[in-house]
Amino acid sequence: MSWAGNVVGLLLLGVVRLLTGAQARWLGCPPTAEQRIYFSNHQSHADLLMIWSALPSELRHCVRPIAATDYWTTSWLRMWVTTNVFNAVYVQRTRGEDSDEDPLAPVVQALNAGDSIILFPEGTRGNAALPQPFKAGLYNLAKQFPNVVLVPAWIDNIQRVMPKGEVVPVPVLCSVTFGKPIALTFDENRHDFLARARNAVIALKTQ
Amino acid sequence: MTSFIRALSESQQIGLMVVVIFGGLIATHAVLVCRSARYQSIATSLRADRPLLKRSWIMALVFVLCWILGSAWSTALFLGLSFIALREFITWSPTHRADHRSLILSFFILLPLQYALVWWGLLDVLTVLIPVYAFIALPVLGASQGDTVRFLDRNAQLHWGVMVCVFGLSHVPALVILDFEHSSTRSLFLVMFLVLVVQSCMLAQHLAAKRLARHTLPNGLRVFQWRPWLVGMFVGGLVGALMAGMTPFKPGEALAMAWIACVGGTLGHRVMAAIKHDKGIQRWGRLSGTTGATGLLDRIDALCFAAPVFLHALRWYFDV
Q1: Which of B55, B89, B318, B85 has its CA nearest to residue B199?
Q2: Which of A174, A199, B155, B200 could join A20 in a cystine, given CB atoms 3.0 to 4.6 angstroms apart?
Q3: Looking at the complex, does the CB of residue B44 fall below 8 Å from at least one CB of chain A?
């Protein structure tokens, strides 16, 4: 990653900390360098910054967020930020004409290379009190990579900082709470696993 | 004592303040360390005091540094403190999506504007900007968004927050505007006077209350206890009387002014305690307070209430 990306990254972190305090609460596990998939509720673009700021600086380079191609490649600036600052993995949200192509292929590639992933299983930003039902991506990844640790997280208050549709953020204290890792059990089906994952995230809301 | 201090030059008085403040902190620290070394059971309760003391060191250092550097730095410091305090207050206020514009107005227009008025010395304007114009503007902005659920509740809490965190606190650096016969740098000593008196009063009251048994009302709110309050008033008055030499007051006037500030501060602190109790929180800021930037409003809320009371008492009594 270029030095300009590093500088912009530090600047964004500074802004996030000034606006939100960016309190990181590692309740269920410590921040270690093992291969993980972090998944949390999704309310705002600043969610990624919150998780990012909670990680130690050494880990930030190898923890990569997932960016939807249809949103994050539309302008030069968005592309530059997601590539050079966050080292994102680009994913097609909708299936293309070639229906054999797995939309998660780039993520699989990243996980095979040893990177950790930040995933928002809702698929898009929500604005309700509780997260929307999780999409299947988390289940598919968990099945394919049984050794990767799945860490749930709850990002609190962030929807008040910059609600969907607003441009100027407002200072409110926010926190990220990381919970105990969950694992896909041998005979669990997709529906049960996703419900359990969603409950794990919701449980962190009140802790 | 007063005449001795008054005879010192300005830089000597500044040096005296630094020695006294940090000497006091060092002495308190030493006392606590000695006591913990002797009595094992006290050690555990003192461990709770240590974060308080560490915070006091940081606050004292930052404040004294900015104070020495002059009124520009002091004003900037209080602008930063208002920002952090208002951020904490808003975190626990009910805000809807429709309040976003009002919040932008409060943080990014009213807050800097209030401190710009302090810097420019426009005392008349800064006294009415938030109580009158923001009082009207904020709910009007809210009404234009169309969300009327809990409308009065949301807007009243927002205005209250801006009043306490911005309006109240801005009156501390605004003391520099008051023009006594002395030069304007002398007015900075009034800032030190107010801060030292109110904070020592609150610290003394807090420490005195810790040693007493907690009496609570049926709903859980701690009963107002006279003895810690009197201890706080005594300490605040003593500090004020001792500092009289650095201010335009005679010792008796300094005592009275210190008491006025302390009454405003302690009663304001009581009000904020009632608000916190209603919201079910122990302190402003986020939950466990493991990061350093939380809980600022708890420490300076007395100042927020004392400062306007003190400033206007000075204006009326001394006719400046």
Answers
A1: B55
A2: A174
A3: no
Identity of the residue in B83, B90, B104 whose CB atom sits nearest the CB atom of A172: B90
Interface A-B, measured as beta-carbon pairs within 8 A, has a size of: 45
Same domain membership, residue B45 and residue B55: no
Q: d(Cα A93, Cα A113) in Å, to the nearest integer? A: 22
B290 touches chain A (CB under 8 A): yes
A149-156: strand order across its sheet: A23-26, A175-178, A149-156, A36-40, A116-119, A63-68, A89-91
Residues 6+ apart with CB under 8 A from B153: B94
Residue B258: partners with Cβ closer than 8 Å, 6 or more residues away: B193, B197, B236, B237, B239, B240, B241
Q: Does B39 touch chain A (CB under 8 A)?
A: no
CATH code at position A96: 3.40.1130.10
Task: Domain of residue A54: give its range.
Answer: 3-206
Cβ within 8 Å, pair B91-A173:
yes
CA closest to A171 among chain B residues: B87
Instruction: Please tell me the distance in Å from B44's CA to the nearest CA on chain A.
Output: 25
Note whether B6 and B91 are same-domain residues: no
Give per-residue pLDDT as tens, B188-211: 888 999 999 999 999 889 888 877
Contact A21 B294 (CB under 8 A): yes
For chain A, the maximum distance between any two Cα atoms, rounded to a whole number of angstroms, is: 47
Q: Determine the Cα–Cα distance for residues A123 and A121; give it in Å rounded to an integer.
A: 5
Mean pLDDT for the stretch of residues B93-103:
92
Q: Which tens digit of pLDDT belongs to each residue from B126-156? A: 999 999 999 999 999 999 998 899 999 999 9
**pLDDT at residue number B291:** 45
| Helix/strand/coil for B242 | helix
Chain B stretch 205-264, residues whose beta carbon is closer than 8 A to a beta carbon of chain A: none
For residue A163, list chain B residues with Cβ-Cβ distance below 8 A: 97, 100
Cα separation, A177 vs A28, in Å, equals 9
Q: Is B83 on the interface with A (CB under 8 A)?
A: yes
Mention every residue, 6+ apart, whose C-beta is less than 8 A from residue A161: A19, A20, A44, A46, A169, A170, A171, A172, A174
Structural domain of residue B252, as residue ranges? 51-318
In angstroms, what separates the C-alpha of B281 from chain A's closest C-alpha? 14
B103–chain A Cβ distance below 8 A for any pair: yes
Enumerate chain A positions whose Cβ falls within 8 A of a Cβ in B: 21, 23-25, 127, 157, 160, 163, 166, 168, 170-173, 175
Sequence-separated contacts (24+) of A126-129 with Cβ below 8 Å: A126/A41, A126/A42, A126/A43, A127/A43, A127/A159, A127/A163, A127/A164, A127/B97
**Which of the two residues, B30 and B230, has the higher pLDDT score?**
B230
